[in-house]
Amino acid sequence: MKKENAFSQDFFKDFSQEALFRVLLNQVDYSVCFKDREHRYVLCSSSFARLLGYKTPDDVKWKKLDDFVTSEEASAFVEYEDRVMDQKTPVLNLEKYFRLSGNRATVETIWLTTSIYPLIDQDGNVRGTWSITRDITEEKTTEQKLKQKDKLCDDLNARIHYLSTVDEVTGLYNRKYFEEIVKRNMRLFSRVRGRGYSAEFSIVLMDINHFTMFCKDHGPETGDVVLQYIADILKSSTRCADDVFRVGNDEFALILSDTALSGAKTLTARINEKLKKKPLVIDEEKYNFTMCYGYSVYKDQLDASELIQDADQSLFEAIKKRSN
């Protein structure tokens, strides 16, 4: 061990501490800077000088940060340095975005992460600050690109969900989503009942009378106009808590929260009244439409298919009466 220590002393005897320090300072990839109390650069690494577009650290000496970035960005950074000097406490891993200025700048914008430390002399006096800085521009650029891709994916997923749950012609929810909401409501109202509260909701299925004949006489495009007209009537007749669906060619459905059978029938009577008062006008000609309704109320059905089947059967009976 003694021979090794002697070798170490012999090896470093021809190097001053300052020379060794400068070798280290100029070779590290991280940017190291020393500033006085007036925030002027006293010493910096070669990598920091190159970052600002200068050839050597001496070219940066005695300059201030506002020589390279906007005054607002420089002032914000100076506040951190003042705090470090006043409190003799470092600020670690500070991420900052800078817009470099001046004709020597090799890039327009840059992201840096910096740790700032108080520069204290042997007598305990704060002489300035020193900092270690790392360029994280590439990482931030990659991060932003990933965020943009994530947003695009989220938007695409939202669009896919919309297309999978919404009817293209009317803008109402479709059959698939109708069945999902029935299942969800059954789970929800079942939990409420389990706590001892009375809770029920109703389903209304409806069919436009003589819609197929109308389409044969006027064409499928006019049929779409009728479907949109009915959709508007249904939306304007229901509450925000209710859901409206198109579940078939000329079939619509309502899910009415906290509504008994009597309430569902009161609503359909209101729909009938609107259909009478607001006929559909096509080429200045008025058309009055009527509908058949089927009802079911969530009571003790075991699953969604049973509840929907009850409403289907009720609608079937109403259509039979219409035909007679």
Q: What's the gist of this structure?
A:
The protein is an alpha+beta fold.
Overview of the molecule:
The structure is a single chain. The protein is α+β, with helices and mostly antiparallel strands. It folds into two domains: 2-140, Beta-Lactamase, CATH 3.30.450; 165-323, Alpha-Beta Plaits. Helices cover 48% and strands 23% of the residues. The strands form three sheets. Strands 2-1-5-4-3 form a five-stranded antiparallel β-sheet, with helices on both faces. The chain has a four-stranded antiparallel β-sheet with strand order 7-8-6-11, sandwiched between helices. Strand 7 (243-246) and strand 8 form a beta hairpin. Helix 6 (175-194) packs across helix 10 (304-323), helix 7 (211-218) crosses helix 8 (220-237) and helix 8 packs across helix 9. It starts with a helix and ends with a helix. The mean pLDDT is 86.
Secondary structure blueprint with pairings:
Elements: H1 2-12, H2 17-27, E1 31-36, E2 41-44, H3 46-51, H4 71-87, E3 91-99, E4 109-120, E5 126-135, H5 137-165, H6 175-194, E6 201-208, H7 211-218, H8 220-237, E7 243-246, E8 251-257, H9 261-277, E9 280-282, E10 285-287, E11 291-297, H10 304-323
Antiparallel strand pairs: 1-2, 1-5, 3-4, 4-5, 6-8, 6-11, 7-8, 9-10
